[in-house]
Every structure is written in C-alpha cells, then in structure tokens.
Amino acid sequence: MTRSYSVRTYGCQMNVHDSERIAGLLEDAGYVAATDDDAADLVVFNTCAIRENADNKLYGNLSHLAPVKSGRPGMQIAVGGCLAQKDKDVVLTKAPWVDVVFGTHNIGSLPALLDRARHNERAQVEILDSLETFPSTLPARRDSAYSGWVSVSVGCNNTCTFCIVPSLRGKEVDRRPGDVLAEVQALVDQGVLEVTLLGQNVNAYGMSFADPDTPRNRGAFAELLRACGAIEGLERVRFTSPHPAEFTDDVIEAMAQTPNVCPQLHMPLQSGSDRVLKAMRRSYRKSKFLGILERVREAMPHAAITTDIIVGFPGETEEDFAETLDVVEKARFTSAFTFQYSARPGTPAATMPDQVPPEVVSERYQRLIKLQERICLEANQELVGTEVELLVVADEGRKSAATGRMTGRARDGRLVHFAVDPAAGIRPGDIVTSTVTEAAPHHLIADAGVASIRRTKAGDAHQAGTTPTTSPVGSNVGLGMPTIGASPIVETASACGTGGCA
Ligand code: SAH
Ligand code: SF4
Ligand code: F3S
C-alpha cells in the first residue's frame, strides 16, 4: 500500500532546501505527498535549534501528534534537522512515540531508518558527527517551478559565541563550482528563473572544497556569481548569507557587473557595538560594516540591504545598544530580522557573566523594531511612482488574494502586491511590470495596473503543477563516499513554499 508523507519545516533556508531533499528521497522510496497533512502516514519534522523557543515548539507539536498516532496504526513520526542533531536520543525520552531520529549529516538514511523502525518495531536513532552525504547528491522534490535553492556549501568554520550552528552542521564543506553550476543549469533548463545560492558563510566559499583536486581559491564566490551571469535564461541570482568579515570588493564588483545578480544583499550585522562584536567573535567592526554598505551602494545605488540583529547579547549595555540603533539609523536597511538573544547550550556566550535580564532585552527589542519599522516605511515610500519588474509568486499571496491582488517579488527582493485583471491569466512564475502606488513597512502596493506581462516556461510549469526534477548533481569526492547514480524523480504537484529567516 502506498504510504503518504508530510514534511514540516522549521528554521532557515538550508532547512527548507533539506526538506526538498527529504521529500525527494521519500518519493524515490515510494512514498507520495499527503494531500491532507493531518492524515499523512508519515510526518517528518525538519527542526531548528537556533533559539530556545524552537525546542519548546517541537515538543509541543510532537505532543499534539501523540493521540493522532495512537488512533492510526502504522503511522510513523520522524524527527530530523538541527534540533534532532542537538538532542539526539533525548527526543525519544521526551516523546517516546517518535519512530526515527536522524541528524543533519545523514538525511540520506531516512528511508532505511523508517523501514528498520517498522520492521523491528523499535525506534531508530542515527546521528553522525560529520557529513555522510552531501545533500546536493540526493534526489530532490523541488517546491517551486520558478525559484530554486542551490547549496554552495554546508557547515560553518566560524565561532560566533552565540551560535549553535557550527556544532550542529559541522565544519564547512564546499561543493565544486562545476557541480554548483551544473545544478543551476539543470534548473534553468526546466524553466527556473531565479536561483538562490546557499551557504552559512558564502564569502568563505572556495577555501574548504571537499574535493582535494579543486584548488583553494579566495575569489571563488565572485567567480561563481560571474559564471551564473553566463547562464542563459537565468534571470535572477541571489545568495545568502555573506559574512561582513570576509566580504571582499571582488564580490561587490561581480554583483554590480553581472546583470542577472539581483541588487539585493542580506548582510547580518548582529550588533553595532564594537565591544559586543568582539565578545561575539565577529571580527569586523561597526566602521567596516558601514564601509561595505557604502561601497555596495556606490556600485549598486538601488540595492536593498537587509540584516540580522541580536538584542541583549550578554554584557550589552545601554551604550552598546545605542551603537546598534546608530548603525540601523545610518545603514537604512530595507528590512531587518531582529532576535532577542537566546542562550544556546554549549556556546561560549551561554555561560558569560552579565546575562541581560529579559525585561531589559524586551524593552530594547521594542525600541529597535520601532526604529526599523520607521526606516522600512520611509525607504519603501521613496519607491512610490517607480516601475517594478515582478516575478509572480504563489506562496506569499494569500493575504492579497482577498483584495483581488496577486503578489510578486521585485528584483531587489521586495514583496509587491499588485492589482490584476483576472482575465489576464497571469500565473505564478510569469514576469510582469507595474508601478508602485503605495508603501507599507513590509510590502509595496502596485495598483496602477499591469503594464506588461511575460508568460514564461516557469509559469507554464506552475500551471501544469510540475516542478523541476533535478537528478542528483555532483559527487561526494572528499567525503570518502561513492557518487550516487542519477535517480529520476517523478514530477509532482507544486506546493510552493520558501522560508524566511529562522
Ligand atoms: N550564518 C548566518 C546566520 C545563521 S543563523 C550568518 O552568520 O549570517 C540566523 C540568525 O539567527 C543569525 O544571523 C543571528 O542573528 C540569529 N541567531 C543566531 N544565534 C542566535 C542566538 N543564540 N540568539 C538569538 N539569535 C540568534
Ligand atoms: Fe553561526 Fe556565525 Fe557561522 Fe553564522 S557565521 S552560522 S552566526 S557561527
Ligand atoms: Fe539549523 Fe538553520 Fe536553525 S542551520 S539551527 S535550521 S537556523
């Protein structure tokens, strides 16, 4: 009997993309996507551990599933991702009804672990300390017909004192440029218009190739951007995340000189205080950060720059926080993901003295949000009257459906709800142009009517309910593993979903 599955994803874009691999593996193993998530025979949680509330959320969700599982014989629950990597068999202590716990380094083992759990009627826990299989060599069931994620690296060699990611994702391993580009090309061949290159620190790309025969190359990321520029049909290239310490001018030049690289940059600040940055072991300083933004804007005057900021890092004083507000005021970010510091087990910051009381963190956090909202709105208001080119999206349009608008992403990444004549037959994946008529802090409105429509292959694919079927690309050279052979993936209905920051 065919078993249905549902994957629930938490956390960052890496996890969103890993979930595409998990779905691809499951479909290769004969599972089918559940039409009703609540009735799936298999529920996979792909978890995140970046902040403490992620833990609480997972165990709460697992509790809700316990009675469902006892009422449905044969149902299985698997927990993977970063929180599984962190908690290991504790997942089973807290939720003994879970069938499989797998980590970030062995996604490929999931189908076998599920079989073993069923056969042995015993929960299976398999967590490895280092990467077993490059996720990019696994099959994928892609979510979108028009946008694709492509990993350039996994893991992180930095040691930011607040961050649990390196202990859960391991040391950085870079893919060969040829493998990355082959995957991009395969997506574009099937109509994908937009690709986002993924890595915890894309600026370090080139220094940790898994393949011993690929020479280390500091300029590898800029070269990769330029090579993407040569791929015909690829209209939009984005990447996340760069690290300010290693952000070099060759990347700015490559961005500015490569027309399909979007005028958008997500550049995590974390704090505006030099003292706090030092304690965070983030090796850039306020002036360097602002200097990068200046050079980016010189080269790309309309670049939208976004960031991540942590409020309440241990020892953060009111003066330190004022420095953060000052950078925010000067940097004029298009948007900012703001986080209250959360102590993570095993990280140096967790045991630092002078942890900031929650009420102080919360009060600062509110002030930061208020300032950033004002800046978001001001920056968006400057765009009223300008023309925007939009890639129509399916996933973020729910709110605008009620108003008769559709939603698109501008080249700079901004979300734009635009008025549309239903008779025009515009589909997610098509490209339209319109004029901005109104601004809000987190989106723009374009009610001037659609000036042009370009129907695309991606739009056709979305309408037909198909998504790209990239065969596994690349090899495990350097990981001591054989290459996995090409594995066809059945075309599946598109259920678009992209993840924001954790
Ligand atoms: N590799 C990325 C960050 C990935 S984590 C980078 O360096 O840019 C995404 C964001 O979560 C971080 O940028 C940081 O702002 C936030 N974050 C990480 N650890 C955190 C913690 N312990 N408490 C609060 N926010 C945290
Ligand atoms: Fe974490 Fe720092 Fe690595 Fe980003 S660069 S994943 S914040 S350790
Ligand atoms: Fe892991 Fe991403 Fe969360 S790397 S801890 S899923 S933010």
Bound compounds, please? S-adenosyl-L-homocysteine, iron/sulfur cluster, FE3-S4 cluster
SS class? alpha/beta
How many structurally independent domains? 3
Q: Fill in the CATH topology of the largest domain.
A: pyruvate-formate lyase- activating enzyme
Question: Can you give the helix content as a percent range?
Answer: 25-40%
| CATH architecture title of the largest domain | Alpha-Beta Horseshoe
DSSP helical segment count: 15
Q: What is the quaternary state of this protein?
A: single chain
| Rg from alpha-carbon coordinates | 23 Å
Number of strands: 21
Biggest sheet overview: 7 strands, mixed
Percent of residues in β-strands: 15-25%
Query: How would you sum up the global shape?
Result: globular
Low-confidence stretches: 480-502
Task: Report the CATH superfamily of the largest domain.
Answer: tm_1862 like domain
Function: Catalyzes the methylthiolation of N6-(dimethylallyl)adenosine (i(6)A), leading to the formation of 2-methylthio-N6-(dimethylallyl)adenosine (ms(2)i(6)A) at position 37 in tRNAs that read codons beginning with uridine.
Protein name: tRNA-2-methylthio-N(6)-dimethylallyladenosine synthase
Main location: cytoplasm
Family: Belongs to the methylthiotransferase family. MiaB subfamily.
